[in-house]
Amino acid sequence: MLRLPPFTYYAPARIEDAVKILADYGPDAMVVAGGTDLYPNMKRRQFEPKIIVGLRQIRELHRINGDAKTGVTIGACVTLAEVSQHPAILASYRGLARAAGLVANPQIRHMGTLGGNLCVDTRCNYYDQTLFWRQALGYCLKKDGAICPVAPGSQRCWAVTSTDTAPVIIALRATLRLVSPRGERLVAASDFYRDDGIHYLNKEADEILTEILLPPIDGLKTTYWKLRRRGSFDFPVLGVAVALAQEGERCRDVRIVTGGVNSRPMEMTEAERILIGERITPDLIERVAQAVYRPVKALDNTDFVPLYRKKMAPVFVKRALRELLGWPIQETPDGHTSAAG
Amino acid sequence: MDKQLITLRVNGEVHELAIPVHKTLLEVLREDLHLTGTKHGCELGECGTCTVLVDGQPVLSCLALAVEWQHRDIVTVEGLADGPRPHPLQQAFAELGAAQCGYCIPGTLLTAKALLDHNPRPTRQEIKEALSGNLCRCTGYIKIIEAVERAAQRMAAQTAFAESAAR
Lengths: 341, 167
Ligand SMILES: Cc1cc2nc3c(=O)[nH]c(=O)nc-3n(C[C@H](O)[C@H](O)[C@H](O)COP(=O)(O)OP(=O)(O)OC[C@H]3O[C@@H](n4cnc5c(N)ncnc54)[C@H](O)[C@@H]3O)c2cc1C
Ligand code: SF4
Ligand code: FES
Ligand code: FES
Prior knowledge:
Bound molecules: flavin-adenine dinucleotide, iron/sulfur cluster, FE2/S2 (inorganic) cluster
CATH topology of the largest domain in chain B: DNA polymerase, domain 1
Strand order of the largest sheet of chain A: 4-5-8-6-7
CATH architecture of the largest domain in chain B: Orthogonal Bundle
Number of strands of chain A: 12
Helix content of chain B: 25-40%
Structural class of chain A: alpha+beta
Helix content of chain A: 25-40%
Order of helices and strands of chain A: EHEHEEEHHHHHHHEEEEEEEHHH
Largest interface: A-B, 29 and 31 residues
Number of helices of chain A: 12
CATH topology of the domain at 60-118 and 161-325 in chain A: Uridine Diphospho-n-acetylenolpyruvylglucosamine Reductase, domain 3
Largest sheet of chain A: 5 strands, antiparallel
Oligomer: heterodimer
Shape of chain A: globular
């Protein structure tokens, strides 16, 4: 059996109590929500916290409130299955429902939470391995080692952002509520991430993500496209979230955010600028799509050859935009050719 | 090592156990309750063979901490048959040869049960999606899907019969 390392477990019923435990134990403690990311990582000894603070018992973290007009607030412990099926999210924040529904597989979506998904560890073929494997290789920068075998000359870690929901959350311009012993702060979802495989979140160890605040939908339509080898189980090796608002034939607003490449979800600002305010035509969409090619960085540390993932980014942007415009597309958003053709 | 007294409700039976808190539900089911019908495969969430039902929903017992799932309704493959009578799913799997080596089958049966309990007449696509978290290295899935369809038909017929008898 591949077993968890021993730890002490707390299951506080209130956010204040959880915060207090984190304050008392400092860096020895970690929070857990669904455990579908943390527990496999602990079994591989990527993390060995002495204290685990389970958030599942905290009632208020399981709530969903609001509607498309006022905005929707989602508690951090709402499961991905609930996010993907919630009527208000399905109706108005469709890209989010779809991204949540494409995570892993049905079992993991019943256990995994939206908060955990937004905080999910970055991934790399050299890191997501058992202790035995990593020891044989001599470890790497992200855990216990001195070099990065993916980019040996580099001083940084290039592990890949692998959350399906973060690109959509950023495209929606959502805000995150964080609570810590120092009080509470709100952070824009796009400021929550850092382009660094090790320190990938702008979050202190004692900060708990409590709520995800989606703004009023304000005419935006959203979608999410995911590239992976199998139609289930696999993490994204490219994800594309697009939010689009039209005014007649013109684009009033657009956000294009990638995931599964680079170490953080990336907003494709250059591509967005080409489209905003313009009359939308197939030629223009082609130019928008090409503008995402350069900023996308794919290295040889996840599934599929990096160049293929990079080349698929413009293809997915084009398909996502066509889908939102109601133009014909031949593929389904999880990257497979649709049966309907 | 921290031991904790926990209460687990498995297949309708309540168990009180003193276990180390870092034990997974999979480990407790197999090693403490000796319910070895729940299989261990990857132990990392990557295969689905350890699936059990918690309050009617399929979850992976290898990623579930036993202390976190106390006082919930847990069903393992041992709880599927009705006394000596196999569950219609078990019957259909046996008839159609949907189990080969059988290793994935406990998890597959439970996931299929959750599907049929929530959706008695699933389409083939819905069956595929529901079972997409249960890997099988033997069958190629076709017979598994056919067995779920057969069980669904029989269970629907039984329900219809029971309803007309009650009228
Ligand atoms: C086989 C497999 C396939 C997977 N496929 C995908 C996939 O396709 N796409 C994808 O996005 N993910 C995937 N995952 C990863 C994971 O299952 C999901 O990201 C899930 O949503 C994580 O949520 P959780 O609640 O289980 O997180 P946990 O494991 O509980 O936590 C994850 C991390 O976030 C921290 N954390 C959790 N909640 C909070 C909070 N409220 N405040 C502060 N920190 C918090 C934890 O300390 C931990 O570091 C997969 C996992 C497995 C095992
Ligand atoms: S990118 Fe390099 S340092 Fe980062 S996890 Fe992979 S091998 Fe380790
Ligand atoms: S043993 Fe749990 S998913 Fe493989
Ligand atoms: S029957 Fe052998 S793995 Fe499914």
